Amino acid sequence: MNTSKKKEHWKKFLNKKRKIKKNAKSKEESIEAVVQEYEKFSKVNTSTLSSFTDMPLSKATLEGLADSGYEQPTEIQAASLPFSLTGSDLVGAAKTGSGKTLALVIPLLECLWREKWSSEYGLGALVISPTRELALQTFNTLNSVGRHHKFSCALLIGGTDVEFERKRLGSVNILICTPGRLLQHMDENEQLNCDSLLMLIIDEADRILDMGFKKQINAIISNLPTTRQTLLFSATQTKDVNELSRVCSPNAVFVSVHENSKMITPEKLKQWYMICEEQDKINTTWSFIVNNKKQKTLIFVSSCKQARFLTEAFCHLRPGISLMGLWGTMNQKKRIDVFEKFEKRSSAVLIATDVASRGLDFTNLDWVIQMDCPATIEDYIHRVGRTARMGNSGQAVMILTPNQEEEMLKLCAIKNIPLEKQIVDQSLMVDIRSNLRSVIAEFTELKEFAQGSIVAYLRSLWTMSNKKLFNVETVNAAELADSYGLVSVPRIRFLNRKGIQLEGMKKEKNEDVEEKSGQKEKEKKKGKSIKGETESKEDEIKSIMNRFAEAAEKVEKDTDLFTVKKSDIFDVKSNGNEEVEEEEVKIGEGGVVENAARKREKIVTKTQIAKKIIRKNININTRVVFDSDQEENGEKEENAEELENAENEQQTSTFDIEKAKRELKNTDKEARKRMRDLRARKRAEKLEKKKKNKQEEELDLGEGEESGSEPDLSWLPDPDEVRQRYAEQSDEGEEGDESNEEMEPEEQKMPKEKKKELRKRKKTSSTNSDDFEEQKPVKTSKKRRHELSEHEEIALRLLGDD
Ligand SMILES: Nc1ncnc2c1ncn2[C@@H]1O[C@H](COP(=O)(O)OP(=O)(O)OP(=O)(O)O)[C@@H](O)[C@H]1O
């Protein structure tokens, strides 16, 4: 573009803006001036409205519209605004993607502007949307168009911080919300005051009813003032929507712009269907994805579990295109992230549930694939309405099973939906069953998703009201499971309970039936027929006893009295009777066997039966009937006795917690006392041992000093020499002196001092002894005596002798 052209372009653009602003300014002069125009506007021929500037709108709204790129009103906008702007209640219906959001946003802004609404007035307008995504989208449109207004606006949807919302609700002028979250705030939040509400708008009213929000809507409306303006918008004007219109005043205006249009779906939308068996749907969908990598595709499935499984499994298989999933149970933040991410992409695949089927405005969506047949024709319209919006072109394919074809075509024809059959090009089909099996084997959580998907899908078929369209019994469960990469059909309890048997479920069903019949038999045997039970028990006992008697007879021939150590010779174990096992029975001459048999009979039957009667709380009066009255009475008496015993047993065996506590306390006391005694005894023993050790140590120490650290006495003179010398030096012979002959050999070897000591002791002992023997005193010279005493002293000190 050259500069002159550029200049021209800018000039045009600025002039246009100036014109809008001038228009707006002139209308802004006073609210009264705008309101005055309403009357004229309500009678205007809507087809002549070519620009929003032709409408009596506030300057702020006109500027907001211009800034958001909206110049010309769409059909529904042009048709509804003359009523909605002038304060009338309105029920509006228009095709999907026809601009209903703006048709509700403009009157909302204008209403608050007219009333000079500000934050002090609180809540002025309330918009209720069926889904969080749709609420978010409305919120965005409102923020965009209302940017020049000074109203505060809040989005109240699930999955957000309630506490955060709670504090801020008091000053909010416009609230856009989902029914559940709004009710929660109405119940719990005193800040939310709807007393001065001017306008209530319900968007996608048909969807709100479909989703079962009728009760919530009623509860919400009961909290709102009756003097308000109410607007209701939906894509289809169904009977239910008309019924909901009771929330509007009786003078409400019904605007349905595409009522007489040739087609209910967008005109530039190409619609096909293809026939495919249930088990081929995944392969078909995958083949479509890999063959349309440059397109933006939205794939609808019927349950969250399917959406999750297919998204994750397909991602693992790497389709070569950005693939994401959107389902209701996904957390809110992730839902918004996915939505925004998909919005930004020029080519991508989104696998979604019906959470994305209404109101969501995806830009440049090329394809809508309905992998599962929609529940109703309205659902079909909403799903395909995600593409070919606002006059753009788009394509939609619906996958039908052979048995769905006829009914669906009939329904589409009624609504004038042009559907064409598309033949699947088999050369483009890819079989991914083995790949799915590998993926499931590698990522085990996918197995659960796959199983859940099948159950959810079959359940959805089961719950659908149109049985001509949805017949669960036509599904081959085994092949369906195989198409999900599963080797076996998951347990489908709800079908089992209903007694519905699908292909591949046979075994399970039979098992179930067997199980049930087995249970019934058991019940019959155990509970319902005590007679039967008793009889069978007695038969069993009789047979055991017969075999026992036979065996006993056999051994009786050889010996009169012996002991049979019973092992399982009668195959009792295999009869399941453990009480007669491992029992020592004495068998004697005549009648002993019978005694044993009687004993055995008592042990086996009575306790068991009595216990069972008590356990199962069965009335004993309905019990066994024997041949004779006598026997019967006897048995009854016996049974009553047994029962009494068993009851007593039960009573005594009843767990008395108080008694147990006392016992436990006593036991605890005793145990503690025992422990105390034991500890005291141990302590005493320890002390004793310590004392003993100390004594031994002391003794050891003395011995050690004697033996271990023996003093060196080598320096002492040889005692023999000394003695010799003594003898020589002795004045008067050796009278009374010890001689070697008198000494013991050990004594002889002893040092002199030791010998002396020994002698001393001997002397003492001999003095004390009875056979006293007089000892002669030792005679030594004075010098020698001194020398000797000196040596003695040293030696004694060294020896440590006391
Ligand atoms: N006057 C207008 N001029 C240009 N674009 C418009 C106008 N009004 C609405 N649009 C655009 O048309 C698209 C569809 O609008 P919108 O989502 O409001 O349709 P809808 O009727 O609510 O659809 P659905 O029934 O699917 O919810 C949006 O992208 C919106 O921005």
UniProtKB/TrEMBL annotation:
Enzyme class: hydrolase
One GO molecular-function entry: ATP binding
Domain Helicase C-terminal residues, every copy: 268-440
Compositional bias of kind Acidic residues: 628-647, 697-709, 729-745
Biased composition (Basic residues): 672-693
Catalytic activity: ATP + H2O = ADP + phosphate + H(+)
EC number: 3.6.4.13
UniProt keyword terms in alphabetical order: ATP-binding, Helicase, Hydrolase, Nucleotide-binding, RNA-binding
Family label: Belongs to the DEAD box helicase family.
Entry comment, domain topic: The Q motif is unique to and characteristic of the DEAD box family of RNA helicases and controls ATP binding and hydrolysis.
Function: RNA helicase.
Official protein name in the record: ATP-dependent RNA helicase
Organism annotation: Diploscapter pachys
